[in-house]
Amino acid sequence: MVDAVAHPDKTVLFVLSAVSLIPLAWLIGEATEHAGEHTGARVGGLLNASFGNAPELIIALFAIGDNLPDVVRGSLAGSVISNILLVLGAAMIVGPDRSQLQRRSLLWQLGLVATAVVLLLIPSVPGFHGDPNRHSLALLSIGPAVVLLALYLVVTVIGLRRREDDEGQGDPGWSLRTSLVALALATAATAVTSEILVHSLQDFAKAAGLSQFFISVVIVAVVGNAAEHGGAVVIAHRGKMKLATQIAITSSAQVALFVLPVVLLVSFAFTHPLTLAFRPVELIGMGAAAVFVGLVISDGRSRRWEGLLLIGVYALFAALCLHLGDR
User: Fold this and answer.
1) For residues 112 and 253, is the Cβ–Cβ distance under 8 A?
2) pTM
3) CA within 20 to 30 Å of 311's CA: 20, 88, 93, 304, which one?
4) Distance from first CA to last CA of the chain, Å, rounded?
5) Could you give the dihedral angle defined by the CA atoms of residues 40, 43, 49 and 51, in that order, rounded to the nearest 10 degrees?
6) Phi, psi at 277, each rounded to 5°
7) DSSP 79-138
8) Whole-number percent of the chain with pLDDT over 90
9) What fold does the segment set 54-167+208-324 form as a domain?
10) Does the pLDDT value for residue 266 go beyond 90?
């Protein structure tokens, strides 16, 4: 008994590390928000872009180090899909019915996700045949990654300028020093926890009888986005539907246009660089989710039954991933 506690098997480590990532992701989100109240919109936006998606970035890099490219692609695709289906759906359910949304801004963000999917076809289509992780596809992935990152930077700069003009700074809840210390500690703890999560993933998959693809695209993706998930739902419950829906959809665009290309470019420092050769189900899932949500919010109103519909569609997607198994 004592030995089991002192040396838990990897399936227990996976569960514990996954659960531990949830409060760490929340703390990173809180710290970046409070730091942004001191630094202003420009630097605050940069902090959110850099650290708000820290769990996804760190998990992806450890998975690259363990030569688990399917886990990397699955978790990132799952993050995009879960944000605009699961999180947005939950926010619509708990928020006020028939709330007005920022239709134009949300459709613009969804358009960016769809643009990312189109660019990802460049390395993905050749990966449908042969080894999807061959070096030639890694080199082919550089072009789309650079375009995505450049597009993200341009859109972010424009967005921050508008936000800085429209919004003033809020009253800071934490001091800047407290925010930065909390951010540093939470990020360091996330790195350690993510390493345990990735190293125990394969053993957990075998023990649970689940495919690595399902674990990465559903479980790891949801855990890595815990800050955005919880934050959007809580804010929606407070009646701030415009902000809640912006968090859900903008977070999805951030993963597609920022996290994904950064992970790809950094992967060339590893022995086996990543390719952006996604599976058809991943590409269809991201593209279809963006289009479907665009149709749902096209009237500029949120309805509870639409939230239930979005969650139902996500459940169908998760069931499909469970059925398909590994590549």
Assistant:
1) yes
2) 0.82
3) 20
4) 38
5) -100
6) -85, 85
7) HHHHIIIIIHHHHHHHS-TTEE--HHHHHHHHHHHHHHHHHHHHHHHHHTSS-TT-HHHH
8) 34
9) A middle domain of Talin 1 (1.20.1420)
10) yes
Q: Which residues contact 67 (CB under 8 A, 6 or more apart)?
A: 271, 272
168: CB partners within 8 A, 6+ apart = none
Handedness of CA 202, 19, 247, 312 (dihedral sign): positive
So where are the chain's domains?
54-167+208-324
Extract the runs of DSSP E, i.e. beta strands, from the chain. Answer: 99-100, 301-302
**Distance between CA atoms of residues 141 and 123, nearest Å:** 6
Q: Which of the four pLDDT bands, split at 50, 70 and 90, describes residue 5? A: very low
Classify residue 4 as exposed, middle or buried by CB count within 10 Å of its CB (0-12, 13-18, 19+): exposed
What burial letters (b/e) apply to 6-25, b meaning 16+ CB within 10 Å? eeeebebbbbebbebbbebb
Q: How many residues does the chain have?
A: 327
> Collapsing DSSP states into helix, strand and coil, what is residue 67?
coil
Q: Which amino acid is at 257?
A: L
